[in-house]
Amino acid sequence: MTLPVSAGRAVDLRVEPVDEVLDRVERSLQVRLALETVVRKRRSVGARTDRDTWVRVERRVLDKISDQGWNGTESATRLKHITQPAWQGCVVWRDPAEPVMWRADETELLPGSPVGTAVLINAPRLTDTWWQAFNDSLDALAEQHTRRVATPDTVAITQALVTETISTAFPSGFDTTVERWAPAHADLNWANVTAPTFCLFDWEDWGNAPRGLDSATLWGSSLAVPALADRVWQERLHDFESRDGKLMTLFTCAKILGPGAHPEDPRLEPACLRAEQILSELQTG
Question: Which of 22, 93, 210, 224 is the most buried (most CB within 10 A)?
Fold first, then answer.
């Protein structure tokens, strides 16, 4: 049984009861969920179905649903030349007890397993073919067009957010104005890509963002494994060498080094070193 949750309390679906939610999803989509395959994350729950598909269920408070909606997985189906799981359908409903919406999206199964957690501490084995598919998808995504605005961590990314986030960790004295905005996945980490076959999934937050956001985000998720971080940097060098890419690198470093920094985060030192380099380049360039 799902207990009522007050709007003021943070909810973590890794520990909240979700039996009633999953029952409703099964009835609405006319599927049976394989409970032994359930994966629980902070704001989503996923499971395999009896028709060899995957269902991802997300809880989102109304204040976090913008005018563009929150149909990222559905709207991403129109993107071309992107390796992603095909979308099948969905069900959406308003929670009767609190200002919350629930959404369940059904997609085809992933072609492999997630590479790891959002932040890796062990190097994965990724082939050159994998990296080529990764680059092809990111390059294709950046060339497409949308009116959606990316919402990393469910917050719309704006010029003001970029400037504010960078300023929380680094002194001002340089221009933080973004020059190019382009479509981005906006949650590109190692938990949202598969191997040995590449596939990019969890498209809930995609939309326009500063060039280089995805590259910088994945690089930041790799910093505890220096060789992996270096590989991401080299693969996406054309992003990182652009002015916007440098801003997004600082944006990522600021999230690691800013007020919420954890003293034992293994990414602190490499993020600090890279940030010092980028700051020098921006202030003298």
Answer: 210
Residue 269 has a CB neighbour count (10 Å cut-off) of: 11
Question: Which residues pair with residue 204 across a beta bridge?
Answer: none
Instruction: Determine, yes or no, domain membership for 3.
Output: no
Q: Can you spell out the DSSP letters for 53-102?
A: EEEEEEEEEGGG-BTTBS-HHHHGGG-SS---PPEEEEEEEE-SSSSEEE
- Is pLDDT above 50 for 4? no
Pairing of strands 87-94, 100-108: antiparallel
> What's residue 10's pLDDT?
74
Q: What's the pLDDT at 68?
A: 80
As a whole number of Å, the CA-based R_g of the chain is 19
Total domains present in the chain = 2
Domain that holds residue 47: 19-108
Separation CA 216–CA 232 (nearest Å): 9
Pairing relationship of beta strands 44-48 and 39-40 according to DSSP bridges: antiparallel
* Domain final residue pick, 85, 108, 131: 108
- With 70 as the cut, is the pLDDT of residue 99 above it? yes
Angle subtended at Cα 268 by Cα 262 and Cα 273, rounded to the nearest 5 degrees: 155
Stretch 110-132: mean pLDDT: 95
Q: Are residues 81 and 33 in the same domain?
A: yes
Instruction: Please state, in angstroms and rounded to a whole number, the distance separating the CA atoms of residues 258 and 42.
Output: 22
To the nearest whole number, what is the mean pLDDT of the chain?
93
User: Amino acid letter at 81?
Assistant: H
| Rounded CA separation 57/4 (Å) | 18
Please tell me whether residues 103 and 119 are part of one structural domain. Answer: no
Q: Extract the tokens encoding 255.
A: 């999230």
